[in-house]
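User: I'm putting together a teaching handout on how multi-component assemblies are represented. Below are the sequence lines for each component of a complex, exactly as they appear in our records. Could you produce the 3D structure of the whole assembly as structure tokens, so the students can see both representations side by side? Please keep the chain order the same as the input.
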Amino acid sequence: MTSGIRFDGVTVRYGDTTVLDALTLTVEPGEVMALLGPSGSGKTTALRTVAGFVTPSAGRVHIGDRDVTDLPPYKRGIGMVVQQYALFPHLRVDENVAFGLKARKHPRAEIPGRVAEALEMTGMGAYARRHPRELSGGQQQRVAIARALAIRPDVLLLDEPLSALDAQLRSGMLAELARLHRELPDVSILYVTHDQVEALTLADRISVMDRARLQDCGTPQELYRRPRTAFTASFVGNANLLPVRVGPDGVDLAGTALKVPVGDAAPGAAATLCVRPHLIGLGEGPNALRGRIAEVQWRGATHRLYVDVDGHRVKADVRELRDTPPLGSEVTLHFAPEDAVLLAAGVNDG
Amino acid sequence: MASAQATAPPVVTAVRPHRSRTVPAWVWALPPVAVLGLVFLYPLGLVVQESLAPGAYAEVLASASFRDALVTTVWLAVGATVGCLVLGFVLALIVAFVPFPGAKAVSRFIDVFLSFPSFLITLALLFVYGTVGMANGLWTGATGADAVSDGPFHFLTTPWGVLLAEITYFTPFVMRPLLAAFSQLDTAQLEVASSLGARPARIVRRVILPEVLPALAAGGSLVLVMCLNEFGIVLFTGAKGVTTLPMLVYSQAILESDYAAACVVAVVNVALSVGLYAVYRVVSRRAGA
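Assistant: Of course. Below is the structure of the complete assembly, with chains in the same order as your input.
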């Protein structure tokens, strides 16, 4: 049996503050949906309405065919993993994993097998007799994941599951989560994160949230290559957003004519040009932008250049330079027409 | 780091000559030890010495009144402690986890309650359940009996009255450490437990209770020792029929001027308190608290 999640106009208000505004979204069975956004964007609130810890002021939440809006959390059949692991400190690892099975009155004889299976799946089989305090953060999070998987939920809620881990562990766990999802293709996963790398790596689709609203939803490639809003473009991949005016076969950036596909944008209309920093090259080329170096950051394999072009600051990530240009020196940047995306709304410099 | 290590040795050598001029540490221990000895250890020594009068122990330990008082004291203290633990745990759960208006006010009131004298509670119970109290008044008003004292509520002068008063008075002593422990609980644990399918009762039993056990033990042992030594409540309520060890000390010493017997009872009472406290320490250390 597989079941997805459906948000149907879900709104959460506390007094006059709306923390989630009419969210309508479907997570397909077996899909990994990332809710990506800055803190206070409503993504965790959305997850908590699925878990049952927040009651919507309006709208309905469905898991599969069931309307769970008014069900208490313990009747929803959900696996949940939170940032701080939340293991039960007085129980051993195996007892932690068995907790959900016992709570659901699972046949006693089957529990040890299910516990062992869940611990094997997360690579924690050897630690069954330990207490949580004897484990590292990464190990504790594996146990928390095993505990959530042991009840074989249709829906898995992951609330910033890797945020408490250091960078190296995080990338390892990211690969683990991807493998687990391949092994459990029927489980729908709602993955709340503020980290775009986690979302891009793991998710089948990403929902970008900001200020209590769903801003954009699509596959990682769509959102990255063809963002529909300026917020998505800047939050996912930190794109350059330049205010331009649409011309006959390109756009005009403060007097510089640039050749980019304009689609059906009306000539003369204000628009936002979106170009990813790593798609901008240093030197002459098509769509040349002349400006002065305002700042240079060395990032190991790349240099990040901040260049002031006609009063707009443009970010460019170029391969590590042998000789970094001095601050204030004049440089030329360029980008291929097909690497730019024209967004409808006009914005100020991002 | 390296510079800190390099500068460390001179600091140590600088302290040494200075140290010889300072007063030795044991001198500072003298005043508190002297005060402790004067106001606590010396009187205690006198009590023990008095109790060692020839034949005093044999006489007291053999007397029925002593054995009755000992049994009454222990069962009242144990009963009141169990009652306080159960009631205190339930009430603290409600105050901490059931959202109701005024929960904070209730929590603050508990702090105030701890400062009340014990006889105040007893006095209040007398007004309600006493022989001529409100409950009996209502009863006689409803049934038309002749005198208020004919009402059905006469339990306050029995051990049950003492038990009720002690539970009423000492329950907040269990609640205070419990509420502190509840506020330290990770709410994410409770949420995860509930998402795993645990109903509230199971969460209380399997998650909350084990984690606050040390606080419960601390509150319980405090109440046990305080109940063993409680005097005011017993004097106010059970005066007629209930005799505990502290009451026995009082009646032997003040009413019968039998100081030797009073001191024997007092020593037994002290031994009982200290013994139970020691048991608690051993048990709580085994439990890893």
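A couple of points students might notice: Chain A has a mean pLDDT of 91. The CA atoms of residues 89 and 174 of chain A lie 25 Å apart.
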